[in-house]
Amino acid sequence: MGIKGPNIASRLIKRITSKSFLFLSGLLLIIGNEYVLHFAHYLQWAPIPVETRHDGDMVLLLVSDPQIQGYQREPAFPVGYFSRWDADRYISRSFSMAFLHSSPDIILFLGDLMDEGSIATNEEYELYYQRLQNIFQDAAETKKIYVPGDNDIGGEGFDRRTSEKISRFERYFEYLTGAVKFRFASFFKLDVRFFEPFLPKHKKILQEVGEEIYMPFRIILNHESISPKLKSHIYPYSYVLQLLKPIRPHMVISGHWHKANLFLCEDCLSQENDDGDYWPVTKRDLTSEENYIEINSDEKSTLVEIMVPTCSYRMGEPKMGYGVLVINDNGNIKYMTLWLPPRYISLFMYAGYAIFLCIVIICQILRKLFSAMRRLLTRTQVSHYE
Fold it and tell me: What GO MF annotations does this protein's record show (predicted)?
């Protein structure tokens, strides 16, 4: 009786054929990469630091630079089709987990929704929009705010921004600029751009906003970063005060760089900081942060900017994620990044397995071919002797 178990195990091992081994190993590889790896990252996320939500608490889910892949610059079928499918599926699955984990009150999209939105035809743009709706379908009933990026409406390099591109974005999503009030917070979309002067549109925004300026919590949303740049690279400093001082933002939220950073400038909104080209900005790299950090914001003189990383592995960054911001009407701020599992490692493993599978198949074909040739040669020799 004591050796019956090992005998059964050895017989089972002997009965496993090469086909069964390849099937089981491939199945385990898929389960590990597509389910276990994602679930392991999900378990590492810190819980939302709000035990019981009240009217004065708000959870914001921040989505930056998904840049779903296009049709013009991607390889032809089947590579292009597979790359779009896999990238969309990765963002969709990770977003579903982030949405389930955070149960956000509002979702902020910080631009570059599409990789080729600016150069897309109207037919392609419609396809992009439908894909985005499918990717983020879990948030269909949740309040959302959209900020366009340069890949959506142009404005970087030789890709010029035009009124037609802006109008198309606004038809599908929402207005380029303006103020949005949601519960106790106001969100200001100013469309501040690199090397762009203070424009009439900025003055118009400040003239049109009313009670939004007096809300308990005020946030500026912008695709490009503001605080870590040269003053002269954005606009003359007096224009900075014209834009920011009336709003007195508790923070700025941006994307564009695809990285996770926190910028803090204690005197950026002060008249005393009027000399030189640089703001006294301190940068904190959040790449290694796994838990929530508390942020102190004095809206009278301090400028706080959170830079949210990309959520797409196609951007080439080693770490991707979604931002989660927890605020209340007393001005308390907590922030963390929900880091996502790497994808290229999984794709390399799939490629390695596919190569191994091809080698096995070729070896089996060659073995059968050699066996057939050997049998044919044996029959020829036998018939010759007869």
Answer: hydrolase activity
